[in-house]
């Protein structure tokens, strides 16, 4: 009786957890898509620079986010099906998907503390325009100023006004000297804070999902053993 009551409670908790995990998976997929195709991020990524490390991070983050979201959604679906059907096989598969997602989430969460998000492409484009070496760079710089609503940067040379008046939007020209580098860093920092907050919540639900699926597996296993006891087979003599 106690085992059945505990199993019923676990099944209810697992269904709620599976729903939350599915919503988190959809949120991660949406966030990955917005990050990959968003104007601010594509501007930084598409700058043709051999040393543009952000471009590599940009593509890896997108594919990692999509794979992670698919794993979480699969874990939620398998756990829900296992709860309804009381299947040990589906429960084990749900646990495996939760564990796989957890193994991907931990390195992603630790990445923030082992890598910096310094973006140096703006410096490169700005100096190219200041030296009047490329009209294409001037177009890129203008697009950055329009997207981030900033104008120029602080320079020790003091000869930046000409560049800023050529590339800043009309409404931002009076703010010449405003540090775009700081604006870009602040934008990326806010975005990464949101991303890692979402990852932290997902880690918590993933661990809870692993605990519930393992408990459900043992409950189904011992319950089936108890059902076998007390059954007798009558054989004719």
Automatic annotation (TrEMBL):
Tell me the keywords, alphabetical order. Disulfide bond, Membrane, Transmembrane, Transmembrane helix
Short name of one Pfam family for this protein?
A: Tetraspanin
Q: Where are the transmembrane segments?
A: 12-37, 57-78, 90-114, 194-218
Keyword flag Membrane: yes
Q: Does the record's keyword annotation contain Cytoplasm?
A: no
Which coarse location class applies to the principal site listed for this UniProt protein?
membrane
* InterPro entries named in the record: Tetraspanin/Peripherin, Tetraspanin_animals, Tetraspanin_EC2_sf
> This protein's superkingdom?
Eukaryota
Record's bilayer topology term: Multi-pass membrane protein
Q: List the disulfide bonds.
A: 150-180, 151-168
Q: What is any one of the record's Gene Ontology cellular component terms? A: membrane
What subcellular compartments does it reside in?
Answer: Membrane
Family assignment from sequence similarity: Belongs to the tetraspanin (TM4SF) family.
Q: What is this protein called?
A: Tetraspanin
Q: Which organism is it from?
A: Lepidothrix coronata (blue-crowned manakin)
- Which gene carries the instructions for this protein? TSPAN32
């Amino acid at each position: 009786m106690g085992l059945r009551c505990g199993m019923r409670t676990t099944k209810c908790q697992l269904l709620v957890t599976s729903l939350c995990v599915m919503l988190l998976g959809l949120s991660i997929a949406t966030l990955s898509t917005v990050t990959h195709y968003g104007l601010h991020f594509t501007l930084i990524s598409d700058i043709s620079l051999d040393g543009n490390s952000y471009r590599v991070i940009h593509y890896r983050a997108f594919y990692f986010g999509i794979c992670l979201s698919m794993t979480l959604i699969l874990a939620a679906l398998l756990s829900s099906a296992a709860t309804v059907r009381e299947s040990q096989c589906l429960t084990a598969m749900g646990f495996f998907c939760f564990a796989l997602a957890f193994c991907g989430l931990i390195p992603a969460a630790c990445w923030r503390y082992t890598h910096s998000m310094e973006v140096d492409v703006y410096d490169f484009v700005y100096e190219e325009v200041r030296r009047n070496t490329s009209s294409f760079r001037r177009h890129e710089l203008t697009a950055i100023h329009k997207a981030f609503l900033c104008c120029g940067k602080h320079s020790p040379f003091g000869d930046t006004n000409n560049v800023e008046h050529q590339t800043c939007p009309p409404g931002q020209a009076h703010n010449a000297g405003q540090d775009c580098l700081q604006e870009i860093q602040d934008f990326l920092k806010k975005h990464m804070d949101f991303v890692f907050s979402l990852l932290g919540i997902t880690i918590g639900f993933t661990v809870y999902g692993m605990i519930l699926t393992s408990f459900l597996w043992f409950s189904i296993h011992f319950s089936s053993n108890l059902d076998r006891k007390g059954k007798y087979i009558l054989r004719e003599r």
